[in-house]
């Protein structure tokens, strides 16, 4: 059978885009764009280290869906999730179809120092933190039964994960006073998609739409060569969907997802660049998370394949090495 052309591949890849606000969990994850200032919500009660993170996620409603799904509604109506690397496989379209396209292909690399981080942040601060509760799963502006809209512009248009972490240590404030303190609990955004949901696999609608679009192209195209190419793509998408619904997976182009029992290096911006919702502080953060407890950057597939996978896509690897050398002693067990 003939290989799909580059032009056709681009058409198909365009059909596959989705993500949290403007980001794509299939190809564009890693964007360091921070929440806009218009997303900041005023609140009389700023989070001061006391948070409902553990309270909101510790008890479950008796009516919650049973067990094979880790996605549960807690007693306050929030839909929560707890990522566990021993249970969930990180996958995406590129990995499933064995395309060596790096999830860390972010443009040119740069050292994550104060001067460079100021290009993205007003007041960057480097922290060591750990997960202290279940993540909130936001699907089209709702977290379970809770309307979760930072402002009217957000209503019903975004899907993402917010995970509560506690700051264990302010590692580096670059000599600029920060408004974070050790012990603060903040929610940080993670950009990935869950394939399990109480909404009838609604997170996979992007893939269903792609399948329908390809079917229409095939139906309306009399060119046998193109029909053959799109037929291969259609079969591949159907197999991918079957895989996602039959395995414990999350769709992500990142290798480091926050999970309990781990410590991480993260870079936050000042509180005013985040927002407050339900008395919890949400942080504007550099969206790459660094697991400096490891001896090398966490591999995506296998160490052997990883050598090829990172070839030419060196931003994450270079930044991990820089941060490990500068702050690694803070993560010694």
Structure described in brief:
The chain is α+β, with helices and mostly antiparallel strands and 333 residues long. The chain has helices at residues 6-15, 53-58, 93-96, 114-117, 205-219, 224-246, 303-309, 315-327, and strands at residues 72-73, 79-81, 89-91, 125-131, 135-139, 142-143, 146-147, 159-172, 185-190, 193-194, 249-251, 263-268, 275-277, 280-282. The termini are far apart.
Supply the key terms:
single chain, 333 residues, alpha+beta, nine-stranded mixed β-sheet, 8 helices, globular
General description of the model:
With 333 residues, the protein is an alpha+beta fold. The strands form three sheets. Strands 1, 2, 4, 5, 8, 9, 12, 13 and 14 form a nine-stranded mixed β-sheet that branches. Strands 3-11-10 form a three-stranded mixed β-sheet. It has a two-stranded antiparallel sheet with strand order 6-7. The chain is built from eight helices and 14 strands. The protein starts with 5 loop residues before the first helix and ends in a 6-residue tail after the last helix. The protein has helices at residues 6-15, 53-58, 93-96, 114-117, 205-219, 224-246, 303-309, 315-327, and strands at residues 72-73, 79-81, 89-91, 125-131, 135-139, 142-143, 146-147, 159-172, 185-190, 193-194, 249-251, 263-268, 275-277, 280-282. 25% of the residues lie in helices and 18% in strands. The relative contact order is 0.20.
């Amino acid at each position: 059978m003939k290989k799909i052309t580059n032009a056709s591949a681009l058409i198909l890849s365009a059909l596959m885009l989705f993500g949290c606000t403007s980001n794509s969990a299939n190809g564009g994850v890693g964007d360091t764009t921070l929440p806009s200032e218009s997303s900041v919500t005023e609140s009389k009660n700023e989070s001061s280290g006391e948070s409902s993170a553990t309270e909101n996620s510790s008890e479950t409603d008796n009516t919650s869906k049973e067990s094979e799904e880790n996605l549960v509604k807690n007693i306050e109506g929030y839909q929560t999730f707890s990522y566990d690397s021993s249970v969930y496989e990180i996958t995406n379209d590129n990995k499933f179809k064995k395309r060596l396209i790096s999830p860390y292909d972010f443009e040119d690399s740069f050292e994550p120092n104060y001067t460079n981080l100021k290009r993205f942040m007003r007041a960057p601060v480097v922290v060591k933190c750990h997960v202290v509760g279940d993540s909130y799963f936001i699907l089209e502006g709702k977290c379970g039964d809770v309307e979760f809209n930072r402002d009217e512009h957000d209503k019903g248009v975004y899907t993402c994960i917010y995970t509560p972490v506690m700051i264990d240590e302010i590692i580096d404030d670059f000599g600029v006073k920060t408004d974070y303190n050790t012990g603060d609990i903040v929610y940080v955004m993670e950009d990935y998609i869950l394939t399990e949901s109480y909404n009838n696999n609604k997170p996979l609608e992007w893939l269903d739409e792609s399948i329908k679009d390809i079917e229409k192209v095939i139906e309306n195209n009399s060119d046998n060569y193109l029909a053959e190419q799109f037929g291969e793509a259609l079969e591949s998408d159907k197999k991918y969907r079957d895989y996602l619904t039959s395995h414990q997976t999350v769709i992500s182009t990142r290798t480091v997802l926050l999970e309990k029992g781990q410590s991480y290096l993260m870079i936050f911006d000042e509180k005013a660049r985040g927002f407050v919702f339900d008395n919890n502080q949400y942080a504007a953060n550099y969206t790459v998370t660094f697991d400096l407890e490891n001896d090398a950057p966490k591999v995506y597939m296998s160490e052997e394949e990883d050598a090829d996978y990172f070839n030419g896509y060196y931003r994450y690897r270079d930044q991990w090495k820089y941060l490990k050398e500068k702050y690694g002693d803070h993560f010694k067990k």
